[in-house]
């Protein structure tokens, strides 16, 4: 028996195994404020609330164009029409060909008033309570309730016209990834007791919680209500945010024995299956 071919086969099998495992990871990246990207095990990229020029995003520091760091985006999910959530959605859609996921009023007004590419704003329009499949069935997206307001800034408004157009109902999203985690993005909601229904319905692995809108105490209650395995704070720590730190939120979660992780802007978390991999 020759040893060389056996060693070669063994090495090849090991390498192939590593590559396969690597390809199965889900990447969750915080781009500051409420903006996150999710890269699925099959390599599809979802961008949520893409205000990338926020002051926290490392890709926007020192006058850099944050869009330069964006190459592939397949889907843009927008929770509501406020500018700190729509952000650079139009430019990103034009650059990448990404499809919009939003409610119909927000989608149509983004097309009509801000020149979002029309062909990319028709296939994945949804309403609260609905679920859609995207990424060839790899991802299921559910739109959830959010207690907030929503409007689309209209740059074309004349002096006597309202500068804020209707944006439909604000929302949150539950994003279920095959061979990956289930991620709940709260949007800008205040706490509402029916978050318990989200917890009863979905097995949330990671909840991205807007702690400035809810406050520390109710944010911790939100984490408890949705029964998340891991709570990650967002929409805090910058001028204009009600909360500059997530410390009080973390302290409340500790008492409730709920796992907490504070991401740094620009940081990526990896998940193998539903499990977070600590680096
Ligand atoms: Zn906001």
Structural notes for this entry:
The chain is built from 7 helices and 17 strands. The chain starts with a helix and ends with a strand. The chain has helices at residues 3-23, 83-86, 89-96, 104-114, 195-201, 211-225, 247-256, and strands spanning 26-30, 36-39, 45-48, 75-77, 99-102, 124-125, 131-134, 139-145, 151-153, 164-166, 171-177, 182-185, 206-210, 230-234, 259-260, 268-272, 275-277. With 279 residues, it is an alpha/beta fold. Strands 6-5-4-3-2-1-16-17 form an 8-stranded mixed β-sheet, covered by helices on one side. It has a 7-stranded mixed β-sheet with strand order 7-8-11-12-13-14-15, with helices on one face. Helices cover 27% and strands 25% of the residues. α6 (211-225) packs parallel to α7 (247-256). α5 (195-201) links the parallel β12 and β13 (206-210). The longest helix is centred in the first third of the chain and has 21 residues, at 3-23. The structure holds zinc ion. Zinc ion binds at residues 34, 82, 84-85, 188, 235.
């Amino acid at each position: 028996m020759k040893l060389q071919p056996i060693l070669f086969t063994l090495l090849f099998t090991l390498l192939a195994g590593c590559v396969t495992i690597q390809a199965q990871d889900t990447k969750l990246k915080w781009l500051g404020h409420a903006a996150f990207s999710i890269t699925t095990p099959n390599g599809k990229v979802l961008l949520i609330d893409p205000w990338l020029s926020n002051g926290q995003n490392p890709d926007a520091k020192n006058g850099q164009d944050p869009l330069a760091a964006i190459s592939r985006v397949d889907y843009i999910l927008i929770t509501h029409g406020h500018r700190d959530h729509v952000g650079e959605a139009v430019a990103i859609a034009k650059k990448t060909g990404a499809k919009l996921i939003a409610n119909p009023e927000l989608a149509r007004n983004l097309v009509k008033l801000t020149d979002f590419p029309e062909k990319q704003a028709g296939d994945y329009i949804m309403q609260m309570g609905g679920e859609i499949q995207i990424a060839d069935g790899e991802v299921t997206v559910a739109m959830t309730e959010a207690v907030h307001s929503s409007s689309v800034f209209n740059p074309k408004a004349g002096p006597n016209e309202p500068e804020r157009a209707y944006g439909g109902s604000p929302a949150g999203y539950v994003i279920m990834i095959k061979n990956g985690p289930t991620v709940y993005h709260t949007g800008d909601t205040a706490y509402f007791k029916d978050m318990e229904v989200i917890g009863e319905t979905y097995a949330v692995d990671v909840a991205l919680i807007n702690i400035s809108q809810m406050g520390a105490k109710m944010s911790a209650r939100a984490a408890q209500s949705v029964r998340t395995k891991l709570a990650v704070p967002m929409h805090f720590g910058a001028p204009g945010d009600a909360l500059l730190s997530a410390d009080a939120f973390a302290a409340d979660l500790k008492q409730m024995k709920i796992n907490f992780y504070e991401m740094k802007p620009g940081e990526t978390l990896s998940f193998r299956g539903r499990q977070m991999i600590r680096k």
